[in-house]
Design brief:
single chain; binds heme C
Length: about 170
């Protein structure tokens, strides 16, 4: 009898534990679904931040930049007529040979040459997909600056000749 008194609460504990566990199950399922819905960063974004943002960082100021922000590259390469495939090919061509024909000669004049850095084509294709499909981070001043540099009648892009607008 004494054993029963000791055992009963123990049994109760085990039972409760079990029932708690079965209650946990639907919760786990919800979190799995939630995970699938919260978009993980695109792999191209991760590679781009690792391989390209050391120079093409959107956060660097105009005066301290060592290369154009990726958003500027996007706008010089991607217009309404270029397909994702064409852009991907152009980006692969450029990264494999940064001496090839330039779409941004002003950037070359201002920042000097981009060094050749071996990157697998598949990685560049992922970067291209991210740039093509998603909105990129850009500095606050970028929009006004870009519009100013491409005003109608100004002819070629003056992106890298204009100064960054003062923010104070
Ligand atoms: C070590 C610095 C550095 C890194 C890292 C770098 N770039 Fe550049 N990139 C530059 C510079 C400097 C320029 C401007 C010079 C030029 O156009 O010749 C440039 C220009 C470009 C251009 C414009 C080319 C044109 O048509 O004029 C593209 C596209 C580009 N980079 C893509 C990339 C991509 C994609 C990566 C990452 C895989 C990358 N860059 C990594 C320095 C860098």
């Amino acid at each position: 009898m004494r054993y029963l008194i000791v055992l009963l609460p123990l049994l109760g504990l085990i039972c409760c534990k079990d029932s708690q566990e079965s209650k946990m199950e639907p919760l786990d399922n919800i979190s799995v679904i939630e995970q699938a819905h919260t978009s993980k960063p695109h792999p191209g974004k991760i590679i781009m931040e690792q391989e390209c943002y050391s120079c093409h960082d959107p956060a660097a100021s105009m005066t301290n930049r060592i290369a154009p922000p990726m958003e500027a590259i996007k706008r010089h390469y991607i217009d309404s007529s270029i397909t994702k495939k064409e852009f991907t090919e152009a980006l692969i061509l450029w990264v494999n040979d940064p001496e090839t024909e330039k779409k941004m000669p002003g950037a070359h004049k201002n920042f000097g040459p981009m060094p050749y850095m071996p990157n697998p084509d598949e990685a560049i294709a992922l970067i291209a997909e991210y740039i093509y499909d998603y909105e990129l981070e850009r500095p606050d001043w970028f929009e006004a600056h870009f519009q100013e540099a491409h005003k109608k009648g100004m002819g070629v892009c003056k992106c890298f000749e204009l100064q960054e607008p003062k923010t104070d």
